[in-house]
């Protein structure tokens, strides 16, 4: 069953301690940027009708940006909890849980204003005419902190890429990292990917689906990959770091074009808060895991960590990597989308020093 997303409780003493800790971390890691002490305001959800881009709602002088309220390791939630939106004119307006495959399409139409999903989904959306752009780099893959991990049952007999022919692989969506990084790797090892059955399974359900033999291999993203690492029946074969050295692991944040044009200062607020939160997570991995464990109601030992690009400044090689893959897969015409079409660092206050 999908994990229910618990609301983060308001606990003034812990919140004050976290903000103090986060302020010190931000001051050291972000050139002395300090947190302001204004309190956040609560607001309602923003609705839209007829599939048209929703009108941005304001609460007082706060610009409310629409964002999914999903059970995940996500910098918007952490930035909010750490107080990085305080003292700005911007705040998140959580609009409920949204299935991973729907996030980028909804950013592209303006149903939500920001979303975090992998680069190939953004490229494909732009190629189809969607109005969105990557504004912050987001997560990265390290050997000790992969973006995604590959698991099989210990009794499956699957140990090599060729063993997967005729088997079923579960991942969280088509068109993203799990599909394209995996297919590229398997083809490099002589596997006929047309002989593999690929099915969509949400990350939080992937481990159980594998254990119950409904899939033969599960590709699971953090934080839920930690639970599979600790499952007695399963064994990890690879991580995405093993497959491509982490080049395909950038998980960026994208924004709807209309929101960018109408609210550039709000975009700067969001990107700055994301960058501060990402740097804080990199410097405080255990404290970050504790916050995520509370949010998704998971035992701390099962919560995998995330790593983030320094200052969340976007670089071009991870984008070109996916443009090349999409072209080789016949999903993107040559010249249809260039790297510069996909991203901007204009709203990142730390980009100029990188």
Brief overview:
With 354 residues, this protein is α/β, with parallel strands linked by helices. The chain has 2 domains: 12-141 and 248-353, Periplasmic binding protein-like II (D-Maltodextrin-Binding Protein, domain 2), CATH 3.40.190.10; 148-244, D-Maltodextrin-Binding Protein, domain 2 (3-Layer(aba) Sandwich).
Structure keywords:
354 residues, alpha/beta, D-Maltodextrin-Binding Protein, domain 2, five-stranded mixed β-sheet, 12 strands, 17% strand, globular
First and last CA, distance? 43 Å
CATH domain topology of the largest domain: D-Maltodextrin-Binding Protein, domain 2
What is the approximate shape?
Answer: globular
**What order do the strands of the largest sheet run in, or round the barrel if closed?**
8-7-9-6-10
Question: What is the CATH architecture assignment of the largest domain?
Answer: 3-Layer(aba) Sandwich
Main beta sheet strand tally, sense and closure:
5 strands, mixed
What's the CATH H-level superfamily name of the largest domain?
Answer: Periplasmic binding protein-like II
Residue ranges: pLDDT <50 for 5 or more in a row? 1-59
Keywords: Signal
Organism: Variovorax gossypii
Subcellular location: Periplasm
Pfam family, one: NMT1
Layout of secondary structure:
Blueprint: H1 12-29, E1 57-59, E2 62-67, H2 75-82, E3 90-94, H3 103-109, E4 114-116, H4 119-127, E5 132-140, E6 148-153, E7 168-171, H5 177-188, E8 197-200, H6 203-211, E9 217-221, H7 225-229, E10 234-239, H8 240-244, E11 251-256, H9 257-262, H10 264-283, H11 285-296, E12 307-308, H12 317-328, H13 339-342
Parallel strand pairs: 2-3, 7-8, 7-9
Antiparallel strand pairs: 1-2, 4-11, 5-11, 5-12, 6-9, 6-10
Helix pairs in contact: 1-10, 2-10, 4-12, 10-11
């Amino acid at each position: 069953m999908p994990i229910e997303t618990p609301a983060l409780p308001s606990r003034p003493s812990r919140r004050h301690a976290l903000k103090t800790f986060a302020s010190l971390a931000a001051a050291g890691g972000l050139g002395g940027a300090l947190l302001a002490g204004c309190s956040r305001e609560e607001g309602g959800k923003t609705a839209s009708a007829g599939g048209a881009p929703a009108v941005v709602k304001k609460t007082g002088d706060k610009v409310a940006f629409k964002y999914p309220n999903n059970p995940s390791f996500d910098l918007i939630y952490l930035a909010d909890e750490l107080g990085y939106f305080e003292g700005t004119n911007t705040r998140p307006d959580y609009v409920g849980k949204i299935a991973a495959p729907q996030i980028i399409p909804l950013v592209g139409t303006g149903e939500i204003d920001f979303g975090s999903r992998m680069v190939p989904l953004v490229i494909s959306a732009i190629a189809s005419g969607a109005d969105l752009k990557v504004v912050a780099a987001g997560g990265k893959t390290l050997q000790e902190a992969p973006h995604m991990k590959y698991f099989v049952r210990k009794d499956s007999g699957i140990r090599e890429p060729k063993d997967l022919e005729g088997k079923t692989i579960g991942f969280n969506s088509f068109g993203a990292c799990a599909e394209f990084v995996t297919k590229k790797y398997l083809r490099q090892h002589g596997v006929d990917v047309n002989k593999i059955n690929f099915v969509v399974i949400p990350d939080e359900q992937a481990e159980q689906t594998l254990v119950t033999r409904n899939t033969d291999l599960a590709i699971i993203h953090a934080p839920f990959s930690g639970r599979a690492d600790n499952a007695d029946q399963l064994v990890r074969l690879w991580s995405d770091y093993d497959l491509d050295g982490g080049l395909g692991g950038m998980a960026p944040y994208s924004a709807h074009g209309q929101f960018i044009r109408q609210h550039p200062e709000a975009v700067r607020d969001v990107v700055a808060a994301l960058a501060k939160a990402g740097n804080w997570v990199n410097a405080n991995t255990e404290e970050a895991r504790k916050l995520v464990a509370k949010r998704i109601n998971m035992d701390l030992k099962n919560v995998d960590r995330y790593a983030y690009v320094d200052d969340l400044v976007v670089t071009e090689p991870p984008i070109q990597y996916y443009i090349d893959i999409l072209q080789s897969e016949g999903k993107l015409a040559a010249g249809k989308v260039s790297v510069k079409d996909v991203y901007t660092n204009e709203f990142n206050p730390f980009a100029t020093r990188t």
